[in-house]
Structure formats: structure tokens, C-alpha cells
Amino acid sequence: MINYNCVLIGCGEIALKGPKTRSHYEKFMISNIKDALDYFNIKSEVIKRDGRLIVETDKVQEASKILLRVFGIEWLSPALKIKLKDLEGFIIERAKDLLNGANSFKLEINRVGKHDFTSLDLAKKLGDLIRRALNVKVDLKKAERTIYIEIRDEDSFIFLNKFRGYGGLPYGVSGKVLSLISGGIDSPVASFLMMKRGCKVNFLHFHSFRKGKEALDEKMGKILTSLAYPNLKFEAFFVPSFPFEVEVIKVPQGYRNILFRRFMLRVGEILASKIKAKGLVLGDSLAQVASQTLDSLYALDEAINLPIFRPLIGFNKEEIVNLAKIIGTYEFSIKDYKDCCSLIGRKPNTRPNLEKVKEYENLLNLDKIIKDSLSLIEVYHFFGEEITT
Questions:
Q1: What pTM was estimated for this model as a whole?
Q2: Exposed/middle/buried for residue 305 (C-beta within 10 Å: 0-12, 13-18, 19+)
Q3: Is position 169 within any domain?
Q4: The CATH number of the domain where 121 resides is what?
Q5: Longest CA–CA separation in the chain, Å
Q6: Residue 180: which of 161, 159, 200, 205 has the closest Cα?
Q7: Looking at 164, 191, 224, which one is the last position of a domain?
Q8: Under a CB-based contact definition with an 8 Å cutoff, are residues 138 and 127 in contact?
Q9: Which residues form the domain of 86?
Q10: What pairs with residue 76 in β-bridges?
Q11: 190 and 128 share a domain?
Q12: C-beta separation of 311 from 190 below 8 A
């Protein structure tokens, strides 16, 4: 058994940026990594070194599990850091532990720094040592065990597995957005994808309960804490839908959904301005349901001037469901829930006429509805698994 003493991290996309941008992103990454581990009381030191981040800690396995959910980490590996001068001796002494019963192996070596050998030279030399010690064969195509070694100047890092993280950009580096989140499958996934692109995401939820706490306890708290893992901080604004519901009976059934969605966008735009968010996020997927046709989205977007981001626009339902399962929101999203859009807008018109939309909108006392709704907002603060008011 190898006693790992650090976590080796590859940041993928960040490494492709220009020097100034890369340095800025790496500072965000280091801060986010430290914050995540501090939240779980794991002491660590994070070191930037030649395209890698190295987390030194005495709780490598626990740290690795947490860091897989930190945005910006393309892959990570529990690793053993030793001096380069001790590498050959370690390989000879611990070859059996490294192969762990495998009958074939290969070495993958990545090297940065000035050395009097090439990566291929080192792979051949170490491979011969292992082969002679254990009477096993080298198989470059179908090896039962791959041994990874990264050389950084006078240090070497040995690891046996690469675990894929979320990748993307560090959380918070791209600015702030406000996501309109429902109790369904799609909008939590859309929010996750904006987080993955470096956005700090706050949330706006319209509910059919008397109090936001009921919606929170029903299932929204579970969905939002899943998105907050391991230690993200954000605010969620809960707004009751009844001020709109009592007015919308004035208009035909087929237009109630589009009017409700335009109303939600207007509330979202006002709230986004207050919290300095630069756009709204929706979970729409083109033509997935009747309210997400091109005509419907055209009539919807006309309601506000703020940018609207739809990261799921080209996804099909299966792709969205698979991603929901990966990020941990699916099991909560499929539970029964009184969702506003489905209650208010049954049988929506798939080709709403914008002039008709505006005509029916004028029948509503929209300014008063928005004002009343904003006065009823309840705010919940999320920090990892913690929820406070």
C-alpha cells in the first residue's frame, strides 16, 4: 500500500489561457481549493508548480473526494511526493505494491525542468527495474497497471489513478448571474453548467406555498444544498406565485404560461439589478416542451433587456437527466412538487403571438403584481450544507 502525501491536480482549460489570465484563474483556484478543505477542517497547503496544483495534506483521500466537486479541476490524483534522487530506490523497494498483482504494466512520465535524461530514458530504466524485480511484462497497449510519474525539477510525484473532476473554470471568476430555478430536472442542471463556467449563481424560486419555508422543506432545500456542495455560498430568493395567480384568470388559458414566465423574468430583472447580477439563467431546451418552442422563447425574451442564458438549449432530455444524476440533483427533482408553471399554465399555446401576449398583459395590473411579489420575497443563505435566513 502506498501512503500518499499530496493531491496532484490538473486544471485543463486554465492551462491554455494567456499568462495574465492564467495567473488570475489560478489564484481563484487556489483560494477555492483552500476554502473547500477548510470548510471540512482539513489542513492543507496548496502549491502552484509548472502547470499543476499540488495540495499537501495528511488527509489525502478525504481531500480528493471533496476536490472532485471543485470547479476548474479537470483531474486529480492522490500522489506520493519524493525526491528525484530517491526515485529508483523507491521503485525497486515498492514495485510489488505499485503493481498490486498486475501481470503487465506501463509507465507514463511527464517531466518539467532541466535533467540529463529524457522522459523516455527514465521510463525505460524504471520499467527494466520493475520487470526484473517481479518478472512481469511491459505492455504499452493493454497494460493491467499504469504507473504515472511526474518530474518537477528535483521532485517526483508517483500515482496510480487519475480521477476526472468537473473541469471548467473556477467558481466566481466570471461574475454573478441569477438563475430561475424550479423543482424540476432542468433548471438545476442549467445552474450547474453556469457554475462550471465560473459564474457565481444566486437563485430565484417561485412557489405555490404560503411560505417559502414550506417550499424549502418540501424539496428545494435538498436541490440547492446539492448545488452548494462542497462549500459554495449563494443566496436563494423565494417568491410566492399567488399575487399573479389571482390576476391571470382574466386571460385565456393558452396564454397564461407565457405571461407567467414573462412576469417571472421581470421580477428576476429587478432583483438581478439589486444584487448586481449580469444575466438570468433558464433551464429551457429548445422544443422539449410546449412552452419552449422558438415562438414561445421569442415572445418570452422580449419582456426584458437583461441577457438570458440557456446552457441547455441544445440538450435532449436524456442528456439532461444523465447530468442531473451525476451532480446529485435528480433524485430530489423527480419527487412530487407543486410547480407553479405546470399549475398556472396548463396547455400553453405553442405559437404565442407577441401582439396578443402584450394585449393580454395589459389586462393585468402587472406593476402592482410585481411590487406585491417583491414585498413578499424571503431570502435564504446557503453555505455548503448550511441554510440560514
A1: 0.93
A2: exposed
A3: no
A4: 3.30.2130.30
A5: 86
A6: 205
A7: 164
A8: yes
A9: 6-164
A10: 9, 163
A11: no
A12: yes
Cβ–Cβ < 8 Å for 66, 46: no
* Pair 191, 158 in one domain: no
Cell of 145: 497497471
Return the number of other C-beta atoms located less than 10 Å from residue 51's C-beta: 15
Among the listed residues 76, 78, 335, 342, the one whose alpha carbon sits nearest the alpha carbon of residue 226:
335
Residues 180 and 314 both lie in one domain: yes
* Rounded Cα gap, residues 374 and 366, in angstroms: 12
Q: What is the C-alpha to C-alpha distance for residues 131 and 104, in angstroms, rounded to an integer? A: 9
Chain-centroid distance, C-alpha 243: 34
Sequence-separated (6 or more) residues with CB below 8 Å from residue 64: 7, 76, 78, 163
Alpha-carbon distance of 298 to 190, in angstroms, equals: 19
State the CB neighbour count (10 A cutoff) for residue 5: 15
Whose grid coordinates read 440533483?
A: 329
Whether 148 and 236 map to the same domain: the answer is no
The SS3 of residue 204 is strand
How far separated are the first and last CA of the chain, in Å rounded? 47
pLDDT along the chain (389 residues), means of 10: 94 87 93 97 94 95 97 97 96 94 95 92 95 92 96 96 96 97 96 98 95 93 96 96 88 90 97 98 90 90 96 96 97 86 71 91 92 96 94
Residues 160 and 184 in one domain: no
Give the domain-ending residue among 131, 164, 197. Answer: 164
